[in-house]
Write a structure and sequence with these properties.
This protein is α+β, with helices and mostly antiparallel strands and about 325 residues long. The chain has twelve helices and 14 strands.
Length: about 325
């Protein structure tokens, strides 16, 4: 793929079980490919987390939430007997996956969270085993707390808030988001069209601006996508990275191509932004085994990015 021509590589994309690939430079479409021949609405899985992060940023910009340093006990009803311990956890700790809860690797309590009668209480009652801000543990429960915090602060579900302040202004075709008791699932559950997901990437490339309107502050774009914790930079195969505010962070030294950050969903779903090259890449892949996400990563870093970036720039 010396030049970006996705259709010419239909065989490779099919072999690697890709469902759709969209590549933009800024807002300009460079190429797109769909297994079915056209874009369609589909699940984001954990790419949902990065969209939720943007919504938290907008809520802070608009004054609904004070700051990322706000303790979660200011924002959520919680068991009084553990108030002191929970009071040490901030919104920032949830965003960086460092609240300190006992949450085994790769989100193992996720099914129990989904089955819990009171999911928010389920998360808050998990034992605290490390000081907040120190240990990284991938935790969709913390993401669900962020969705609950957003709803408590704004009086709107995450989906309603998104339609008013993000999806609507960006002109999205449609959006669905799974919810329970008025709280949209924080860690997953959002369904978007691929092109609409790519618009989120374009918004970040443009530092939060869309058609002369600042939908998201440039400071939030910078803070939320920079490295806050080493996260899973050491993981093999290298399908993850370090961690920001619900965005994965991958420096050139890690991926061999360029500094970038990305939303990542189960099985190899990506919204990747390489800001230095204004590149936005959306990949949807058939869900197989977790580590099969390496095929999406290979497509990005061995084929798409080399075809798009100017090494002499």
């Amino acid at each position: 793929m010396k030049q970006l021509d996705l259709e010419a590589n239909h065989g490779l994309l099919s072999e690697w079980k890709m469902k759709s690939v969209i590549v933009l430079r800024g807002q300009r479409l460079l190429d797109e490919w769909y297994e079915s021949g056209k874009d369609s609405i589909g699940p984001l899985y954990s790419c949902t987390k990065s969209i939720l992060s943007a919504l938290i940023g907008i809520a802070i910009d608009k004054g609904f939430i004070t700051s990322v340093e706000q303790p979660i006990t200011d924002c959520l009803d919680h068991p009084a007997e553990i108030s002191d311990a929970l009071g040490q956890i901030t919104i920032k700790h949830l965003l960086t996956m460092t609240p300190g809860f006992d949450w085994p690797d790769f989100d193992k309590p996720y099914k129990a969270l989904k089955a819990a009668e009171e999911p928010i209480r389920f998360v808050l009652e998990q034992p605290l085993i490390s000081e907040p801000g120190t240990a990284f543990a991938y935790n969709s429960g913390g993401s669900h707390l962020l969705s609950a915090i957003l709803t408590k602060a704004t009086g709107l579900s995450a989906l309603s808030f998104a339609k008013d302040y993000l999806f609507g202004p960006l002109g999205f075709q449609s959006a669905r988001w799974m919810e329970r008791a008025g709280i949209n699932e924080g860690g997953a559950g959002l369904y978007l069209y691929g092109r609409d997901l790519a618009r989120i990437g374009s918004l970040f490339v443009q530092k939060g601006q869309f058609e002369q309107e600042q939908l998201l502050s440039s400071s939030w774009v910078e803070q939320s996508t920079k490295l806050h914790h080493r996260g899973l930079l050491h993981y093999e195969p290298p399908i993850y990275g370090g961690y920001g505010y619900h965005w994965w962070h991958s420096p050139e030294s890690h991926n061999g191509q360029c500094d970038c950050y990305f939303a990542f969903g189960h099985g190899g779903q990506y919204l990747l932004v390489a800001p230095g090259h204004e590149l936005v890449i959306v990949i949807r892949k058939k869900v197989t085994k977790r580590n099969d996400a390496i095929w999406s990563r290979r497509l990005i870093f061995e084929h798409i990015i080399p075809a798009c970036i100017d090494r002499n720039r």
